[in-house]
Amino acid sequence: MKALAQLFLVLVVSIASFSDAGAQCKNFTKRKCIPQMAPYINNGQYNGATLFEGETASVMMTFYSGQDYRLIVCSQDILKGTYFEIKDEDGNLLYTNKDKDSDVWDFNVASTQQLMVEVTVPQTSTHDVKNSGCVSILVGFLE
After folding, report:
1. Domain count, the chain
2. CB neighbours (10 Å) of residue 140?
3. Distances (CA, A) of 10 to 5, 22, 38
4. What confidence category does residue 4 fall into, taking pLDDT thresholds of 50, 70 and 90?
5. Among 59, 61, 76, which Cα is nearest to 107's?
6. Any idea which of 1-5, 58-62, 96-100, 117-121 has the lowest mean pLDDT?
7. Which of 72, 77, 95, 118 shows a CA-CA span of 20 to 30 A to 61?
C-alpha cells in the first residue's frame, strides 16, 4: 500500500511539472514571439515544445496559394543557434535560416501545398547536462 501511495505521488508531481512547463512555453510565446508577427495576423495555432540541445522537431503545415505568410521560429535565449528548415513533401530543402540572423521568413506559395517545418537545437554546451527551453513555431498571414 505504501509503494502504491509513493507511485501515485510521483505520478501527480510528474503531471504537474509537465503541465507547468507547457504553460510556461505558452506564456513565453505570447510575450516574446507573437509581437514579432505584426502586421501579419497569427493563424491562432500554437506549435510549441520544450526541446533539449541536440534535438530536432518537425511539423507538417498546409500553406494556401495566393496567400502571403510570415513564419516565426522563436526559442529561449539559452538555446543558442536554434535554426529551422522548410522542406517540401519530397524532402527538398526550400529555405533555411541556419546562416541568417533572422528567425522570421516572409513568403508566399504558388500552389497550395504541405510543407515540413523542421527545427533543430544544436548541441552547444560542453558539459553532460543539456540545456532545454521553449521553441515555438508561429504562422501568420496578411489579410
Report:
1. 1
2. 21
3. 9, 19, 43
4. very low
5. 61
6. 1-5
7. 77
> What CATH code is carried by the domain that includes residue 120?
2.60.120.380
Q: Are 104 and 86 in contact (CB under 8 A)?
A: no
Supply the range of the domain harboring residue 57: 2-141
DSSP 6-67: HHHHHHHHHHHHHHHHHHHHHHHIIIIIGGGGTTSEE-S--EEEEEETT-EEEEEEEE-TT-
* R_g of the chain, CA atoms, integer Å: 18
Q: Are 105 and 47 in contact (CB under 8 A)?
A: no
Angle of CA points 18, 72, 59, to nearest 5°: 60
The DSSP bridge partners found for residue 69 are: 107, 141
* Residue 38 exposed, middle or buried by CB count within 10 Å (0-12, 13-18, 19+): exposed
**Residues 23-69: pLDDT tens digits?**
789 999 999 999 999 999 999 999 999 999 999 999 999 999 999 99
Q: pTM for the full model?
A: 0.79
Q: Are strands 47-52 and 132-141 parallel, antiparallel or unpaired?
A: antiparallel
pLDDT of residue 16 exceeding 50, the answer is no
